[in-house]
Amino acid sequence: MTSGHYSTNRHFSNTVKPMDIKPSRKERAFSRREEEILQATRELFSIGAWESVTVADIAIRAEVGKGTVYKHFARKEEIYARLALDFGASLLNELDQLPRVGNAIDDLYALTRMAFRWHLDDPIGNSLCKFTDRPEFQQRLSLEYQQQFRDQHDRFERFFAGLLAQGVAQGLFPQVPMAPVLYGTHAAFLGALEMIRTGMYQMPNPAVSEEVFLEHVTDYMLAGILGMGTLLERNRG
Fold first, then answer.
1. Which sign does the torsion angle of CA 76, 82, 85, 90 carry?
2. Using CA atoms in the order 225, 226, 228, 230, what is the torsion angle rounded to 10 degrees?
3. Which of 2, 95, 108, 126 is surrounded by the most beta carbons within 10 Å?
4. Count of structural domains within the chain
5. What gap in Å lies between CA 177 and CA 184, rounded to an integer?
6. Which domain holds residue 66?
7. Shared-domain flag, residues 216 and 203
8. How far is C-alpha 51 from the geometric centre of its chain's CA atoms?
9. Runs of H (alpha helix) within the chain
10. In terms of domains, do 109 and 39 share one?
11. Residues 230 and 182 both lie in one domain
């Protein structure tokens, strides 16, 4: 959920698209084996220090040879990247399908809470996202994978920008530059997840529940967006 621009100059083709070609048995077997490798990797992550998992460990868990793993992924980092990209794509799909009430504040609140829950319900996916979002990690990937991460980042930005534009049109959000809104909300989101992971969210009040904590953080994030216009005006003065 971040920034971007939508083009109004869309063109539709009247040409007839060819029928989808059914994948061959060999292609289906290749795809099935790739999913088995990814599933084996997730299973290994769930039972140990996932950063120390090797390609040999993955091959043994998937019951294939190391050479088979390398037919699908050039290096271990590509497996991590694929899992992280799949996690992000699934989250985007869920965000797109979440029912909207039409009020930008209520919609953003519900979507933010759903995104929190998505990360918390899949700690492996959350950890992979943090690990693979680092520039030094992505620089070791192929250009194709680097582009996939950029494309997915842009999709999140366009999604978030659409919500903010909806709020501006409804007179609910101030019309402010996107960058400070993105930095602030992203930092609050990641910080809240880390506080839950470490248990810090219960300091100094051990009685506070995870859900109450997330409610307060989401309120704070929305208040930051609503107050951004006033803050920028003050800084200009």
1. negative
2. 180
3. 108
4. 2
5. 12
6. 25-73
7. yes
8. 20
9. 25-47, 55-62, 66-72, 76-97, 104-121, 123-132, 135-138, 143-169, 178-198, 210-236
10. no
11. yes
At 22, give phi and psi (nearest 5°): -70, 130
Count of C-beta atoms within a 10 Å radius of residue 140? 12
pLDDT tens-place string over residues 192-227: 999 999 999 998 888 899 999 999 999 999 999 998
Q: Provide the 8-state DSSP code for 50.
A: G
Is 198 among the domain residues? yes
Rounded Cα distance, 108 and 106, in Å: 6
pLDDT tens figures, 57-87: 999 999 999 999 999 999 999 999 999 999 9
Is residue 20 included in any domain, yes or no?
no
Q: Whole-angstrom Cα distance, residue 237 to residue 233?
A: 6
Say how far apart CA 108 and CA 204 lie, in whole Å: 28
Asked if 176 and 65 sit in the same domain, the reply is no
pTM > 0.85: yes or no: no
